[in-house]
């Protein structure tokens, strides 16, 4: 065998060995699912997360008890003057309306605040604790780890929303009658259909939190302090909520991530109004794309050893 053939054979062997080593280092789909399961389990076991979910579950209880006490003198409605969260006047007629009222009460602040805390701590919390570099030693890779963190935050959005809805459904069933519902349009629908719409509303509310989740994740990549990231995310939430109430800013308000949050009420119309619901989902997708890309660009260039 000539010297050239020997060199070519050695190069091919080295390339094959490198390919096998890279394949061995590449995480399998089952490993990725295991990482996601571990991240979600770790997030839900934290006392901070348990406290946030406890507060969210307590809101429907407080609203339901308050309405029950207010109407204990025999009056059939509460908040008839238009005050309070949406649907609160219908709670005494049907306990299922407590689900809609609780979601309307928690969506402007409590739900996004909880999501902002979890998203803001996703990367910055690991960096502050010194565990981020060890996560990257495993065959995850920065992109896969970032996607897993975001998926965990999105799962928390669904869990937090369902906690509110489930708590409200239980309290509403215990304190008020259940049965057919009257929609905003004045038509009657069965309790089963109303329950289906309540589930759809909960999913729409969870989807409405996609934007703040992406924004919080991006902020989390900018600092090594979990507290600073959480405070910044919640501060941005409050700022946007205030700006969305200023009439002089009406031209830019449709671009705020919170502008169409309460459009879920259109699901209680017959027929359903889809325009604002679709705008909300499109806006959340836009925020997820923009801030998700920004988070990826920042995290992939971040000096983890610093």
Question: Would you give an account of this structure?
Answer:
This protein has 306 residues and is an all-alpha fold. It has one domain. Helix content is 67%, strand content 1%. It is built from eleven helices and two strands. A two-stranded antiparallel ribbon has the order 1-2. Strand 1 and strand 2 (188-189) form a beta hairpin. Helix 9 runs parallel beside helix 11. The radius of gyration is 24 Å and the shape is globular. It starts with a helix and ends in a 6-residue tail after the last helix.
Following the backbone from N to C, one meets helices and strands in this order, namely: HHHHHHHEEHHHH
Low-confidence stretches: 1-25
Strand order within the widest beta sheet:
1-2
Q: Which structural class do you get from the secondary structure elements?
A: mainly alpha
Structural Rg: 24 Å
Shape, principal axes of CA atoms: globular
| Count of the domains | 1
How many extended strands? Answer: 2
- The end-to-end distance, rounded to whole angstroms, is 52 Å
Task: Provide the helix percentage.
Answer: 55-70%
Report the major sheet. Answer: 2 strands, antiparallel
Helix run count: 11
- How much of the sequence lies in strands comes to under 5%
Q: What is the typical, i.e. mean, pLDDT? A: 84
């Amino acid at each position: 065998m000539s010297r050239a053939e020997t060199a070519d054979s050695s190069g091919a062997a080295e390339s094959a060995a490198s390919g096998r080593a890279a394949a061995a280092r590449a995480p399998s789909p089952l490993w990725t699912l295991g990482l996601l399961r571990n991240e979600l389990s770790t997030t839900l076991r934290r006392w901070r997360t348990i406290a946030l979910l406890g507060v969210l579950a307590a809101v429907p209880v407080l609203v339901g008890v308050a309405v029950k006490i207010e109407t204990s003198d025999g009056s059939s409605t509460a908040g008839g003057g238009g005050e309070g969260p949406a649907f609160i006047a219908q709670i005494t007629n049907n306990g299922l309306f407590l689900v809609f009222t609780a979601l309307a009460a928690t969506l402007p602040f409590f739900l996004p605040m909880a999501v902002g805390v979890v998203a803001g701590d996703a990367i910055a919390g690991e960096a502050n604790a010194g565990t981020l570099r060890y996560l990257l030693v495993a065959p995850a890779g920065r992109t896969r780890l970032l996607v897993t963190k975001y998926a965990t935050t999105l799962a928390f959005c669904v869990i937090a929303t369902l906690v509110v809805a489930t708590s409200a459904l239980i309290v509403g069933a215990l304190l008020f009658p259940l049965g057919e519902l009257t929609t905003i349009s004045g038509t009657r629908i069965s309790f089963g259909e109303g329950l289906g719409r309540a589930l759809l509303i909960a999913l729409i509310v969870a989807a409405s939190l996609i934007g703040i989740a992406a924004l919080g994740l991006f902020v989390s990549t900018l600092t090594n302090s979990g507290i600073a990231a959480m405070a910044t995310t919640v501060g941005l939430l409050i700022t946007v909520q205030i700006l969305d109430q200023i009439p002089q800013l009406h031209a830019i308000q449709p671009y705020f991530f919170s502008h169409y949050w309460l459009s879920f009420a259109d699901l209680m119309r017959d027929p359903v109004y889809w325009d604002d619901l679709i705008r909300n989902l499109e806006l959340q997708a836009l925020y997820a794309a923009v801030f998700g890309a920004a988070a990826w660009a920042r995290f992939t260039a971040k000096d983890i050893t610093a």
